[in-house]
Amino acid sequence: MVMAMAFGGQGPTSQKGHRPVLLRETIELLAAKRGGLFVDCTVGLGGHSEAILQASSDAQVLGLDRDEEALDLARERLAHYGSRFRLVHADFRELTRVLATAEVRQARGVLADLGVSSLQLDSPLRGFSFRHDAPLDMRMDVSSGETAAQLLGRLSEVDLARIIFEYGEERRARRIARWIVERRESGQEIRTTRDLASLVERAVGPDKKRRIHPATRTFQALRIAVNGELEDLDSFLAQAVDHLEPDGRLAVISFHSLEDRIVKRTLLKLSGRCQCPPRLPQCICGKASLVEILTRRPIVATDEEIEENPRARSAKLRVARKLLM
Q: Rounded to an integer, what distance in angstroms lies between the CA atom of residue 286 and that of residue 68?
C-alpha cells in the first residue's frame, strides 16, 4: 500500500471529459457542507472528492483507489487542496486497515462509487471495452492479479458458463463458454478484446431485438470475475458503517443489478430488517438497527444528466445515516 499527500485541482468535468455521476444528489445526501472527514473509497479521477472539498472549507477527504493511474490523475487534479486531501493505493475492502494506518477512528461520511471508471473504460490499452482492440486485461489494479485472458485460458467450460451466466446474466452462457473452450483447444488463444467480442458475436448469432452488443454481458461478467467486484461487498458496507461517527452518512453508487441487490439487502439488514426465512417462528438473525436508510428507492439520474453523460443511465444511489447509539 502506498500513501501519499496530494496537492491541486481542476473543475469536476475537466479531467479528460470525466463526469462524476449523480454528483449533486450524492453531495447533498452525504451532507458534505457540514465539513469533517470523508472517505472516498473509489476516488477515480476525483470528481466526487473535489465536490466534497468544495462543499465546505472544513471538509477533508481520504481517497482510496486500486488503480494507480487514477491516483496519479486525482493527485494532480486536487493538488491545491493541500493537506485536506490524502490518497491511498488500496482496494476499498481494505477500509479498516487503511483507516488504522492513517490513524482515523471515525469519518463523517463514506462514499463508494462501484464498478469500472471512465478512465478505465476509455483507455485503449486496459481491455475493458471492445470499442478498442486491446490486450484482454480488465484488471483495475494492473500491478497484481490475473488478467481476463489468463482466466479464459485456464477455467473449465462449466466454470466459464457459471461466471458468464451469474455475473453477466447472459442466458446463452453455456454456448459462449463452449465456443471459448473449443477455440482454446484448437490452439488459438483469446488474447485481445476483438478476439473475444467477435467470438461471442459468432457464438450468439444475429439478434435484431438486442439493443446492446452481444458481447456486452460477457465482458461485464469477466470484468467482475477478474476484479472480484462482488466479493465481500456486504462486509465492506458493514465496515463502512462501523467507521462512521454517529449521524455520519454512507453513500453507495452501483451500476448493475448484482451490485445494487447486495447493497440494498445489506443496508436493510443494517437498518434492523429481519433476514430470517418467513416461516421461522421467531427471529434468529440477530438484527440490530444501526442505520436509517435515507433513500427508500434508489436515486437515479435525470434525463438531462443521461443526455450529457450516457454512463449515468444505469447508476443507482443508496444512502444511509448511522443512528445515534
A: 40
CB 93 within 8 A of CB 232: yes
Residue range(s) in the chain whose domain bears CATH number 3.40.50.150: 3-115+230-322
**What is the reported pTM?**
0.89
What are the CB-based long-range contacts (under 8 Å, 24+) for 311-316?
Answer: 311/19, 311/21, 311/118, 311/121, 312/19, 312/21, 312/22, 314/255, 314/256, 315/21, 315/22, 315/253, 315/254, 315/255, 316/253, 316/254, 316/255, 316/260
Distance between terminal CA atoms of the chain?
33
The top-level CATH class assigned to 3-115+230-322 is alpha beta
Looking at residue 18, what is its pLDDT? 63
Cell of 231: 466479493
DSSP 215-275: THHHHHHHHHHHHTTTTTHHHHHHHHHHTEEEEEEEEEEE-SHHHHHHHHHHHHHHTT---
**Residue 235 grid coordinates:** 462486509
What one-character DSSP code corresponds to residue 66?
Answer: S
Rounded to the nearest 10 degrees, what angle do helices 193-204 and 216-227 cross at? 130
Rounded Cα gap, residues 84 and 71, in angstroms? 16
> What CA–CA distance (Å, rounded) separates 52 from 59?
7
CATH class of residue range 127-227: mainly alpha
Residues of the chain with CATH 1.10.150.170: 127-227
Q: How far apart are CA 296 and CA 318, in angstroms?
A: 8
| CA gap 107, 267 in Å, rounded | 18
149 HSE (CA, 13 A, CB side): 14
Per the CB < 8 A criterion, the answer to whether 190 and 184 are in contact is yes
pLDDT in tens, 67-108: 999 999 999 999 999 999 999 999 999 999 999 999 999 999
Q: Pairing state of beta strands 85-89 and 316-322?
A: unpaired
